Structure formats: structure tokens, C-alpha cells
Amino acid sequence: MRSYPIAEEFLNSNQFEKNTISVIGCGRIGILQACLFADAGFKVLCTDIDPFMAVSLSKGKVPFLRNELAPIISKLIDNGKLSITNNLEEAVSRSRSIVITAPVSVDERGRADYTLIERTLRRISSHLRRGTLIIISSVLGIGITRSLKELIEQVSGMKAGLDFFIAYSPIPFPDEQNLETIKRQKRLVAADDKNSLDSAISLLEAISKGGLFAIDNLMVAEAAVLFNIVCKHVGAALAEEFSLFCEEAGLDYSFIRPFISLSQEYLKPTLPIDDRLVFILLEEAENLNIKLKVIPASLAVNNTSLKHFVKLVVDALKKCGKTLRRAKIAILGGSRTPNSIDTPKPIFDKLISMLAAKGAKIKVYDPFLSVKVAVNIPNITVEKSLNKAIEGADCLIILTGHESLRRLNLDKVKLIAKMPAAIVDLEGIIDPHKAEAAGFVYRKLGRGVSKT
Could you give phi then psi for residue 362, rounded to 5 degrees? Predict the structure, then answer.
């Protein structure tokens, strides 16, 4: 196996004007890539196998990163660079390149379901033009891209690498992405033949300012992506255990973390991250009759981190002479992305359910969280002002590091909250010493406190 060098020549602007791309899938990764390609000069058709998704987007309904994406999408549509259509087949027949972003679902038993991608490819294969490039941008199991390639060949009657080109270039951790993160990351791109790989490189380097890893073996690339995802989960499990140790030892993990040689991204203490894609690798291992130990153990550790966070809340309230039962909790933040209108964090409703089950009364304030989404979550009161959320609160939980929350005036907060009150800071954006000097009991993941 060999890696091809990255092509040095970029398509010029005139070629961009003639090149039409279909992005299939109006989810987060699809819309972000559609905007990046359109901004790079391509004519982009954004569509979805579900017509409702395309219609909703065409009406300006962006369910995530709204304040960032809505004006960009509007501008791109106005200047003719981006079009939204619910006619999947027509979009494909007009395109030289197709980016597939249909998600892979994982059932309760951890089994990956590729039905949506397979349905999408069956529909588009009979409408492909010769010379079309297809890039699969969803995270897949090992060997799946080759089976999808065979499906396209069977339906279209064309040969991969000769009549059409197919490559694999997923974007892991889709819920954490925005325009800048996709542009900056060094992206993997893979294909089994040189024609497909060169075509994919020429296309993707227009939006990948962080560079590309080029691999000429699809299965190697699929494994590399899954291994990288698992590394993040194992790192999160390590961070959880390091945090627990530091809390008991009276240390502050945030001071120790910069001196650890492993990736700082992987060792950041956090609440549970989306583990669905990890099960794709576990399913592959089961099919090969391999008994893995570390990965299931890391999942088990990560699944306890939310309980540990609730324990921090209980401990902080106890230090205030209060209990969680009937305590008034103000959750500040909850959206996935700081300073951007977005959907809730994956743990948002679970945390609320756990706190409510223990008798807490919960208010939520987040100017970047969709009120329509938030009001559908039971056991909470959504407040439109920070003061209303904090008023009478026994504990403030900071879930998202919005800039406005970084600038909290603690001297004013303590006049509104029910002192003594606690601050449990998931994001680590409040200075612990300033919080304690203002009279608050302060807790965060990985920060030990005196037991006396």
C-alpha cells in the first residue's frame, strides 16, 4: 500500500463555475460542506432523501448553528451559488461530483444500520453521469465502502475507477463541527484506485485548509477513522479517572493536563460523548470473533461520568448545607456550540432527568438554545433572562462556555442567588478562587478540594 502525494494544482475559478456538486443530506455535516463548497466557488445543489428536510432548509429553517449559518445560506442562495431542491434524481443528473452525508444509525444492541445510505445510492445510481465523483462523507464500518461501490456498479452498469469515481472522506464527531473546524482539520481521503483518489483530492483540497491524508486503501482508511474515534473515547475515560483521582487527592487536573504527553484534546475532562460510532468497531470485532477489553471498559467508564457530575452537584450543595431535593438549580448554557444558536448537548435532557428525579427544581437559561426545542424537554422552566434563571438559585450549573457566561459578575450574582450557593462548572470558565472569594462553593470536573 502506498500514499499518493497531495496534488499541488488547484482548480481555477472558471473551472469552479462549471463544476456542479450535489450534497445529499441536509444534516449538520451536509449543510456545512455545502456552504464551504459554495463559498469556494462551486455551484452546489443541496438535497435529501427525505423531501421534508430539503423543504425545511429552503424556508430558512436551520436547526443548528443558526446565527452562523442562516445569513451565509441566504447570501449563497441569493448569488446563485447554493440551491436547495427536493428532487434528488435531478440534482444527481446535473452534478459532476456528489457528496453523500446520510447518517449511519446504530440500534440499541450496537448494530450499525446502513439502510439510509444504501437507499440513497440505489436511487441515484441510475442517474449518474459518466465521470461523476462520489465521496462518502459518513463514518462507515470496515469494508462497507467497497460493498457500496459494488452496489453502485450493479445498479448503474458502470465500472468504478473508469466510468465513475468513488472515495471515502468522513468527518468524525459531526455534532462538534462548524465551518471553521471542518476547514482547519487535516482530513482523510481514500480510494482503491488512483483516478478516484486524484479526483477526490482535487475536489476536497478546495475546502480543506488543514491539508489532506491520502490513502489508497479504503479498508485501511475505514479502520483509521474508527480507531481515531475510539481513541477519543478511551482518552475521555482516562480523563474521567484522572479527574476522580485529582478530586480525592486535592489536586487540580487542569494544572496537570498540559504536561501529559498524550493529545490534549483527548484528555479533556467532559461529560459523555456520543458513543454510537464506537459500536461500529465493536460489531466488526464481534464478527471477527475478537474479544476486545479496553474499548468496552472505556465505554463503561464514560457512561458513569454523568452520575459523577450529579455527585459533584450533590457534594457542592451539601457544602452549602442544602440537599438536592427541592433545590433550585439554574442551568446556564446547554447548546452544543459556544456563542452559536444550536441544538442541545447530547447529555442535556439526561442530566435534567437525573436532577429532576432527585427532586430538584430546574431553570434553564441559554440565549443560543432554541426555545422550541427546550420547551419540549420536561421538568424545566426556560427563562429568557439570566437574572430570572439565577433568582433564588441554590446551585448554578454551567454547561456551555458562552462568552457572556465567562463575564459573569459574581458579586451581582450572589445578590440574586440564594446564598450560600454553589457553582458547578463543566466548562471550567469561572476562576475558582474568584468564585470562592465571592462566597460560592465551587466545583468542576478534576478539581480536588480540601476534605476538612
Answer: -120, 130
pLDDT at residue number 15? 45
| 329: enclosing H helix or E strand | strand 328-332
**Torsion of Cα atoms, 51 then 132 then 74 then 49, to 10°:** 10
One-letter amino acid for residue 34 of the chain: A
Q: How far apart are CA 204 and CA 82, in angstroms?
A: 17
Is residue 378 predicted with pLDDT exceeding 60? yes
**Dihedrals phi, psi of 174, to nearest 5 degrees:** -60, -35
Q: Is the pLDDT of residue 388 over 80?
A: yes
DSSP state of 447: B
Gyration radius of the chain over CA positions: 24
pLDDT band at 154 (very low <50, low <70, confident <90, very high): very high
Task: Calculate the CA dihedral of residues 72, 185, 406, 347 and round it to 10 degrees.
Answer: 90
Q: Give me the amino acid identity at 306.
A: L
Cell matching residue 90 = 435531478
10 Å Cβ neighbour count for 198? 17
Q: What is the DSSP letter of 134?
A: E
Mean pLDDT score across all residues of the chain: 85
CA-based angle 183:82:33, to the nearest 5? Answer: 25
**Alpha carbons 26 and 24: distance in angstroms, whole number:** 7
The distance of Cα 286 from the centroid of its chain, to the nearest Å, equals 26
Separation of alpha carbons 279 and 285, rounded Å: 10
CB 164, CB 131: distance < 8 Å: yes
CA–CA distance, 120 with 136 (Å, rounded to integer): 11
